[in-house]
Amino acid sequence: MSEARSGVDTPGPAQRRGRLGAARLILILGAVLLVGTACVRFPAPPSDPPTATAVPPTPPGARTDVPREPTPNSETCDATVSLRPPAQMPVPGQMPVRSTMADILGRGRLIVGLDTGSNLFSFRDPITGDIQGFDVDIARAIAQAIFGEPTVEYKVLSSGDRIRALHDGTVDVVVKTMSITCDRVRDVAFSTPYYVASQRILVMRNSQVTTARGLAGKRVCAARGVTSIGRMQSIEPRAKMVTTTTWADCLVMMQQGEVDAATTDDAILAGLAEQDPWVQVVGPSLGEEYYGVGMAQGHDDLVRFVNGVLDQLRISGGWQQIYNRWLSILGTNYPPIPVYRE
């Protein structure tokens, strides 16, 4: 006699064991996930926040131990008076026998001391690599008068090396924004002035400094060996002078916040301002500077010859052309009137 079956199947022993195993597996997996999740939630061990420090590189040769220097032209002298040029200039390529110019002609080039960091006066063109500027054109005019063409060799000098280079014969002339002063005429034979500049101040545009008095306690940069240092120390003794090898270094230190200002002649400062729109020239003139071509003492014939070249530039309009080419940013200007002695 057969048993009647209900409509619901009853699991057998094998099925029950399978379901039990599956349940255990689910419990184990759940535990693993729980443990894994719990591990992720543990906080990371404490660590110091990331740090980064950068010290602005100070230009080589920068100094803060600047001694007191004399005020330019603090004594009375006729520093800008120079030797009268010859009544008739020699023909280019035919210099007087046994003259300093004949020696230069025989060598085949005029050796000129200048620098490549005074924008507008003497600097290296970033595209062509040529040295050019107002001082360069004055030097080329001197060479043109000797050779008939501007045959020049340039020696790059710092401001502090100019006089030494003349003494040891490294260069024939220095055309490097070199101010004629009573102190320097003891060591250097100067031409008549070929440019007159005014000392002023260069600051960042957000600076509150507008006069020399505002530099009390401030760091003020200048290239070593220039007359601007002594004048600033005289006008504002509380200014903290910093000296560098070049004017370009002063601009870099201003950009890095290592100095508060720079001071020198307005023409040089205008050249720095052209390189950075965030700086500006401020304040009234602190004093005038007369630039002259520097030569070694004892070479009076060369001094007279150079004065003759400068005279020709004034009369012919050549000086005005050079000025308009490089310094028109400073406004209208004219060549200085020379004063001669015999």
Describe this structure in words.
By secondary structure, this protein is of the alpha/beta class. The chain folds into two domains: 154 residues, Periplasmic binding protein-like II (D-Maltodextrin-Binding Protein, domain 2), CATH 3.40.190.10; 86 residues, 3-Layer(aba) Sandwich (D-Maltodextrin-Binding Protein, domain 2), CATH 3.40.190.10. Helix content is 32%, strand content 18%. The protein has nine helices and 16 strands. Helix 3 crosses helix 8. The longest helix is centred in the N-terminal third of the chain and has 28 residues. The N terminus is likely disordered. It comes from Gordonia soli NBRC 108243.
Count of DSSP H/I helices = 9
Coarse structural class: alpha/beta
Mean pLDDT: 87
Fourth-tier CATH superfamily name of the largest domain? Periplasmic binding protein-like II
Distance between the termini: 158 Å
Oligomer class: single chain
- What is the gyration radius calculated from CA atoms? 38 Å
How is the main sheet built?
Answer: 6 strands, mixed
N-to-C series of helices and strands? HEHEEEEHEHEEEEHEHEHEEEHHE
**Uncertain segments of ≥5 residues (pLDDT<50)?**
1-8, 32-39
Number of domains: 2
- CATH topology call of the largest domain: D-Maltodextrin-Binding Protein, domain 2
Protein name: Putative ABC transporter substrate-binding protein
Pfam families: SBP_bac_3 (PF00497)
Keywords: Membrane, Signal, Transmembrane, Transmembrane helix, Transport
Domain Solute-binding protein family 3/N-terminal: 109-330
